[in-house]
């Protein structure tokens, strides 16, 4: 993994936890989380679940997470807090703009009407 969208939640006692997502070279999406500065836990999703990941990012913001920016993440889940990745072009779209797959909607109308 290289570039990720990084979100941080700071607890009242000053400790923080982080959540991030990014696009893998094979097209899958990887979500990582852990204590601030070390995102050691991860889970992978197929690209077609992009909408689910973007909705989760929005839900994190609704819970108090703050979008920190794009960071370069190494394989162990660490990043340099002062180096923002130069380009976010390798990442998907904006993390707060949901992408809808209309084929997943159930309109309860028989198929073929549109």
Provide structural commentary:
The chain contains one helix and six strands; from the N terminus they run E-E-E-E-H-E-E. It has 114 residues and is mainly beta. The protein has a six-stranded antiparallel β-sheet, covered by helices on one side. Strand 3 and strand 4 (38-45) form a beta hairpin. The longest helix is centred in the middle third of the chain and has 13 residues, at 50-62. The model is unreliable at 85-98 (pLDDT under 50).
Strand content: 35-45%
Tell how many strands the DSSP assignment holds.
6
Integer-rounded radius of gyration = 16 Å
The termini sit apart by 40 Å
Coarse morphology:
flat
Give the rounded overall mean pLDDT.
79
In the sheet with the most strands, the strands line up as 4-3-2-1-5-6
Helical content band: 10-25%
The succession of helices and strands, N to C, reads: EEEEHEE
Largest sheet: number of strands, sense, barrel closure: 6 strands, antiparallel
- Uncertain residue segments: 85-98
- The helix tally amounts to 1
Q: By helix and strand content, what is the structural category?
A: mainly beta
For this entry, give a set of tags.
114 residues, mainly beta
């Amino acid at each position: 993994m290289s570039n990720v969208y990084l979100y941080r939640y700071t607890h009242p006692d000053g400790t923080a936890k982080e959540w991030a997502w990014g696009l893998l070279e094979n097209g899958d999406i990887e979500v990582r989380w852990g204590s601030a500065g070390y995102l050691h836990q991860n889970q992978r999703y197929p690209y077609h679940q992009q909408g689910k990941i973007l909705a989760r990012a929005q839900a994190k913001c609704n819970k108090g997470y703050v979008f920190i920016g794009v960071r370069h993440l190494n394989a162990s889940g660490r990043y340099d807090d002062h180096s923002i990745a130069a380009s976010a072009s390798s990442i998907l779209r904006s993390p707060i703009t949901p992408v809808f797959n209309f084929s997943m909607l159930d309109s309860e109308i028989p198929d073929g009407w549109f």
